[in-house]
Write a structure and sequence with these properties.
Largest sheet: 3 strands, parallel
Order of helices and strands: EHEEHEHE
Number of domains: 1
Helix content: 10-25%
């Protein structure tokens, strides 16, 4: 049997925005490690900057704090974490949740750190959406 694990390095936890407690998010227990909450009604799913920096959710109903993967102290922890996770549990493959919500340059080193097969999930209504390969 092979083991494939779903990982979501884009965001932490969920709940109403007014109940977000950054101190609960280890190791990034401060709001500076996250993009500012943004659920702009003018959100454009074709604007990659917005896709990468806006939170997933619906404001005060459900909010997924968006990890700022542009910060070295964040992405270096994620690279180390995935390597340790794969080694500890003998994982054979990864499903990368919300792959388009993290800058594309993050993924090659993340997958290389894992050292195993990985496939990214991209939810998009446009069947012509083709992201740049991370190979």
């Amino acid at each position: 049997m092979l083991l494939m694990v779903d990982v979501a390095p884009n965001h932490m936890g969920s709940g109403p925005l007014d109940r977000i407690n950054y101190q609960d998010y280890v190791p990034w227990n401060d709001k500076r490690y996250f993009h500012p909450p943004n659920f702009d009604i003018m959100y454009n799913p074709r604007n990659q900057t917005q896709v990468e920096t806006y939170w997933i959710g619906e404001g005060n109903e459900v909010a997924l704090p968006d990890v700022n993967t542009e910060m070295p102290e964040v992405y270096n922890v994620l690279y180390q974490w995935i390597k340790q996770l794969v080694t500890k549990y003998g994982i054979d493959g990864l499903r990368l949740d919300t792959a388009k919500h993290i800058r594309q340059s993050f993924w090659p080193k993340f997958v290389k750190s894992a050292g195993i097969f990985a496939i990214g999930e991209i939810l998009d209504g446009d069947i012509k959406f083709l992201p740049v390969s991370t190979r």
